[in-house]
Amino acid sequence: MKLLIAGLLSCFVMPLLARLSAQTADSPMTGKSTIAAAKLRTPLDAEGFPQPSAWEAAAPIRFEHDWQGQNPDPQRQTEVRVLWSKEWLYLKFRASYRDLYIFTNRNQRQPQLWNRDVAEVFLQAPEESGHHYTELEISPNGNWLDLKIADKQTLDLNASLKSRVHVDAKQNAWTAELAVPIASLTAHFDPTVTWRVNFFRVEGPEPNRFYSSWQPTNTPQPNFHVPQVFATLKFDE
After folding, report:
1. What is the CATH number of the domain that holds 228?
2. 157 φ/ψ angles, rounded to the nearest 5 degrees
């Protein structure tokens, strides 16, 4: 009987617990402050994005708390994976949602995209510091926005990025992929040198708009532009 119970635990219960643990959001209390970009080692698909199996090599980060690290909402959890090659940086967001709040137009560069549902990444290359970094946004309807922040001024980046989005209404989740030319982010890419980064989500209209941040910015009012709390992006070989 003991052998039978042990066998059942090893075959069914332990793998289930491991899977549930792997899908748990990063707690702001754990101190996790690094995301690793995996090197892309397989061919791209017909649309120029990594194949589904390639993303499995990239360890995800997850967050579901607000911009202050409080009020976790599993129904608005965000998962991020990153891949890299010498020419491209690839990002994949999987965003659970309660409702969608989007512009009516689709699949185009949209100014002030942050006024609707978005997933965002702020990237700071090694040659940048302070309030100098890149802001990329993607929406559930395929709209995107690419900006360069310089001394708190907002400039168009025009990075010639590629994007694609899929909404799974049954699962209440949307997935977005971005392919960003490395040359639009840094003049001299060295994968042995780390970058700084933070990830964000915004969902819903005011007054109940949900502002979520991987690394909490801890501002009194929602504000993502706090480079002092950026975490580390490393490039695994």
Report:
1. 2.60.40.1190
2. -90, -40
Q: Is 74 exposed, middle or buried (0-12, 13-18, 19+ CB in 10 A)?
A: exposed
Domain count, the chain: 1
Q: 15-71: per-residue pLDDT in tens? A: 444 444 345 677 665 557 999 999 999 999 999 999 999 999 999 999 999 999 999
Element (H, E) at 144: strand 144-150
Q: Which residues of 96-123 are buried (b: 16+ CB within 10 A; e: fewer)?
A: bbeebbbeeeeeeebeebbebbbbbbbb
Torsion of CA 226, 195, 50, 28, to 10 degrees: -50
pTM of the model: 0.89
Residue 7 domain-assigned?
no
27 within a domain of the structure (yes/no): no
101-138 tens-digit pLDDT: 999 999 999 999 999 999 999 999 999 999 999 999 99
Domain that holds residue 42: 34-235
Amino acid type, 22: A
- Amino acid identity of residue 143, one-letter, is N
